[in-house]
């Protein structure tokens, strides 16, 4: 979707970051012409699904993975420019358009570069190979003698040249992606591996960027939703007279328990949503928050997932010289996006167009079609970037709301959630509970590890749309919290290990994934408990980890570099006790999903014994994500992961009464502020010849355990319940 | 289709709208609104198509909607239009443009100080008003000045570096 986007050429020119040589309008024409004649292919195995080259050599990159504010758009552009040998500035990116882009899956799980980027790279290599063959024919030179620079092919020996635009311009490749197409030697990379500045930052810092929250279409009305005051309440009656004096109100829309207002102006819609009188049934089906963990333990277990099983952990525990048990838990979190979710929908002539910041436009199309009993082909979803979502927040739900309201009024409707809609109704990161047991032998060696995780059942999928659910329209059944059992198994080679996830039949709120879902919670439990074992064994936490990472040279190298970066001198070495404030250091480590990006961290904290406040002063981070596409982009993600997760660890908890969420604003759902932000020192281990792995999540996973371990180092108490609020720290100190 | 709605509002004429003038980004704009107590944020975004100031909370808690009123950083989401009077409003668009960036905007680009960027309007407007008072602040002073502005992506470190850079380069 281009028309809602800033004109890249203009801002690039203005900022002088790159020399720009393309004209955006010509691309618009190409795309429009394509959709007007025959549908553009979006098949995952077709080169044309991913890229097109016009006669002047301009390249369009079609990506099903979308920019969520993490910087992937520049990284994907770099991958294409490098592999195809075209200038960066010749590329225009179209993302997340169900009519134009391949369905490369949701933009989640730190997979955009690792999966989406690799697909684009292979398509580009296939295209380049085909272009070279065509050039060889035209230039009368063997393909092996040809060289490409900036989209122009020539023979090494000199002579004539031909451009990509002349070879393919405006025509389809009509080629399957060749999995054998030779990839460029990373030693020759000029663009991949460089910190190319992001194209979206200049318009974002001048107010020229069009977020979904800004998107407008002609004839558009403004909608607001009116949610039940108690989450499971039924709508009994609505008094339309209560809003008849508000100027510009067009319609009160009611369907089942879905209630919304539509007005000519945004302020009219806001006022109408506040003044509309509706009566709802009582409902108090939420558990008592003060008994959250009893509730979790009492929830029916639908199945057990055994995520690892080595030897006989239960038997080895019985025979161990020393046994250690602990229970860890992690509160319910909100995505708490800065900009509440928004969407625009236009239901016209039996077809629906929806502009959304969904991280999964193709899946959203299917959900909207199902809700409205339409064919997928009659629904067109176009991605427009929104406020950062960090997972499945309310963007999709706002799209569902807008679709229902637009159908009811027959005009395009923009739905903008208010702050309490977002905090109250975004799907939540579910409560997580883990029981851990370990056995040590007489010399402090770990002989057994046994963990039992209590989390809702379900994996990735499409979280049901609120509008469909409230209106009683078709929607998904079941829960989709993300693959939250990942990293419940451990990276260490103990002789007896059993890790089990008890999958619960229900959880208080509609669950979904929030940055490093499960991986964060499970790494917290595992790495903090491992620290308990190291202390029990009288071992240095680095030495203890290295002892059991014997089969993983990359992990071993990473931890050694972390010792250097953090100037590690042993446990307690950072400790000082002057007055009420005590300092401490904690070590932690993750191999993400036990299969990819490695992160190690040392946290430096200050703990105030008197008031219980934890200040995180510094994080030292070493990360190995394989091949790095854009080093500054990776650093930006690591910094963001650390700061956001320090916030989640120290402060965040969704609060609720028996009827509804009560943390509905920033005073009741507090997040980290500037004076509380730690310094972050980063050492990136670039491995250009390895696969590129994801960076959007892994560094988040190490934060809670690093802080917990540092707090123990400082004051000798174990923080086993996120968030580590001052009250909890004081309570732990008092009972120590 | 089961949608219950009434033709109740069809053809209903709006209440008499009120016209007023507003000084924004060096120009006097004529504004017509139904409700003079409408927050300034919606005047800027919906009447004047200035989308630099953003809706984050509507409660004055996050800072995403920050604009300058007579040089002071204010939260436009809780500032009624009727309270503005003749005071001069400057939005992010009035600070600088892609063609003519303000020093602080250049600093944010140089430091790549954004992720999703939704909060950045507030960061720049708050920081610009602060730097006008304190031309060479310490890092701690910058953090204190921005303590009431929230960022969810965790871009704080870059934002502080950008403000520091702007202060040095100003």
**Major β-sheet strand ordering of chain A:** 9-10-7-17-14-15-16
N-to-C order of helices and strands of chain B: EEHEEEHHHHH
Overall geometry of chain B comes to elongated
CATH superfamily of the largest domain in chain B: Beta-grasp domain
CATH topology of the largest domain in chain B: Ubiquitin-like (UB roll)
* CATH fourth-tier homologous superfamily of the largest domain in chain A: Aldehyde oxidase/xanthine dehydrogenase, molybdopterin binding domain
Q: Class by helix and strand content of chain A?
A: alpha+beta
Using the coordinates above, name the CATH class of the largest domain in chain A: Alpha Beta
Number of helices of chain B: 6
Return Rg of chain A in Å: 27 Å
Tally of DSSP β-strands of chain B: 5
Low-confidence stretches of chain B: 1-8, 10-14
Share of β-strand residues of chain A: 15-25%
User: What is the number of beta strands of chain A?
Assistant: 26
Largest sheet of chain A: 7 strands, mixed
Provide the CATH architecture of the largest domain in chain A: 2-Layer Sandwich
CATH class of the largest domain in chain B: Alpha Beta
**Low-pLDDT segments, ≥5 res of chain A:** 1-36
User: What is the CATH architecture annotation of the largest domain in chain B?
Assistant: Roll
């Amino acid at each position: 979707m281009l028309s809602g986007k800033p004109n890249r050429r203009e801002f690039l020119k203005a900022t002088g970051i790159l020399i720009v040589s393309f004209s955006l309008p010509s691309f618009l024409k190409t795309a429009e012409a394509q959709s007007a004649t025959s549908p553009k292919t979006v098949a995952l195995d077709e080169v044309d699904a991913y890229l097109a080259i016009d006669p002047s050599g301009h390249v369009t990159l079609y990506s099903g993975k979308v920019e969520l504010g993490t910087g992937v758009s520049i990284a994907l552009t770099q991958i294409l420019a490098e592999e195809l040998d075209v200038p960066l500035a010749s590329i225009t990116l179209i993302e997340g358009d169900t009519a134009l882009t391949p369905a490369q899956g949701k933009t989640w799980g730190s997979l955009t570069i690792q999966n989406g980027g690799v697909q684009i790279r292979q398509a580009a290599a296939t295209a380049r190979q085909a272009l070279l063959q065509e050039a060889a024919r035209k230039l009368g030179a063997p393909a092996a003698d040809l060289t490409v620079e900036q989209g122009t092919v020539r023979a090494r020996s000199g002579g004539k040249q031909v451009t990509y635009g002349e070879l393919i311009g405006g025509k389809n490749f009509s080629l399957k992606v060749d999995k054998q197409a030779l990839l460029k030697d990373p030693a020759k990379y000029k663009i991949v591996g460089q910190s190319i500045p992001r194209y979206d930052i200049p318009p974002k810092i001048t107010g020229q960027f069009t977020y979904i929250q800004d998107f407008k279409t002609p004839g558009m009305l403004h909608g607001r939703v009116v949610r039940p005051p108690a989450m499971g309440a039924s709508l009994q009656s609505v008094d339309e007279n209560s809003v008849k004096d508000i100027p510009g109100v067009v319609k009160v829309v009611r369907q089942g328990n879905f209630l919304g207002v539509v007005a000519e102006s945004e302020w009219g819609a806001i006022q109408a949503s506040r003044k509309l009188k509706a009566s709802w049934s009582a409902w108090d089906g939420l558990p008592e928050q003060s008994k959250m963990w009893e509730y979790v333990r009492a929830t029916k277990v639908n199945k057990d997932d055994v995520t690892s099983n080595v030897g006989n952990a239960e038997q080895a525990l019985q025979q161990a010289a020393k046994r250690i048990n602990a229970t860890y838990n992690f509160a319910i979190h909100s995505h708490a996006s800065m900009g509440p979710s928004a969407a625009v929908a236009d239901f016209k002539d039996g077809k629906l167009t929806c502009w959304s910041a969904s991280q999964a436009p193709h899946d959203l199309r299917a959900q909207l079609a199902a809700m409205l009993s339409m064919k997928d082909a009659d629904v067109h979803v176009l991605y427009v970037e929104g406020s950062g979502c960090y997972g499945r927040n309310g963007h999709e739900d706002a799209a569902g709301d807008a679709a229902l309201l637009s159908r009811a009024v027959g005009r395009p409707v923009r739905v903008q959630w208010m702050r309490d809609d977002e905090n109250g109704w975004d799907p939540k990161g579910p409560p997580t509970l883990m029981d851990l047991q370990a056995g040590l032998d007489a010399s402090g060696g770990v002989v057994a590890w046994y963990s039992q995780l209590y989390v809702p059942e379900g994996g990735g999928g499409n979280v049901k749309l609120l509008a469909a659910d409230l209106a009683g329209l078709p929607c998904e059944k079941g829960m989709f919290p993300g693959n939250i059992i990942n990293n419940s198994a451990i990276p260490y080679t103990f002789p007896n290990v059993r890790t089990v996830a008890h999958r619960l039949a229900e959880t208080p709120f509609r669950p979904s994934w929030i940055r490093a879902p499960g991986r964060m919670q499970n790494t917290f439990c595992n790495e903090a408990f491992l620290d308990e074992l190291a202390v029990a064994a009288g071992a240095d936490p680095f030495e203890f980890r290295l002892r059991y990472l014997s089969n993983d040279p990359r992990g071993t190298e990473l931890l050694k570099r972390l010792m250097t970066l953090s100037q590690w001198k042993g446990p307690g070495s950072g400790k000082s006790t002057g007055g009420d404030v005590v300092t401490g250091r904690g070590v932690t480590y993750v191999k993400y999903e036990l299969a990819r990006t490695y992160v190690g961290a040392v946290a430096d904290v200050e703990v105030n014994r008197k008031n219980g406040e934890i200040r995180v002063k510094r994080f030292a981070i070493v990360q190995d994500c394989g091949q790095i596409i854009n080093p500054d982009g990776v650093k930006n993600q690591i910094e963001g992961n650390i700061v956001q997760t320090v916030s989640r660890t120290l402060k965040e908890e969704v609060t609720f009464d028996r009827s509804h969420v009560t943390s509905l604003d920033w005073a009741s759902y507090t997040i980290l502020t500037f004076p509380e932000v730690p310094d972050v020192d980063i050492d990136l281990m670039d491995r250009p010849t390895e696969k590129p792995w994801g960076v959007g999540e892994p560094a988040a996973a190490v934060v809670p355990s690093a802080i917990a371990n540092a707090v123990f180092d400082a004051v000798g108490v174990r923080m086993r319940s996120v968030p580590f609020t001052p009250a909890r720290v004081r309570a732990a100190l008092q009972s120590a | 289709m089961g949608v219950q709605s009434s033709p109740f509002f069809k053809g209903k004429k709006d209440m008499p709208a009120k016209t007023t003038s507003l000084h924004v980004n060096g120009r006097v704009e004529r504004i017509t609104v139904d409700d003079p107590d409408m927050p300034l944020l919606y005047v800027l975004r919906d009447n004047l198509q200035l989308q630099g100031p953003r809706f984050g909370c509507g409660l004055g808690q996050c800072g995403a909607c920050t604009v300058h009123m007579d040089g002071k950083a204010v939260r436009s989401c809780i500032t009624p239009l009727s309270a503005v009077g003749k005071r001069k409003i400057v939005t992010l668009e009035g600070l600088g443009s892609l063609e003519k960036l303000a020093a602080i905007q250049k600093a944010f680009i140089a430091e790549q100080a954004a992720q999703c960027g939704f909060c950045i309007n507030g960061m720049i407007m708050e920081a610009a008003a602060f730097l006008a008072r304190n031309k060479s602040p310490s890092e701690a002073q910058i953090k204190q000045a921005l303590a009431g502005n929230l960022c969810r992506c965790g871009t704080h470190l870059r934002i502080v570096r950008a403000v520091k850079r702007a202060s040095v380069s100003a």
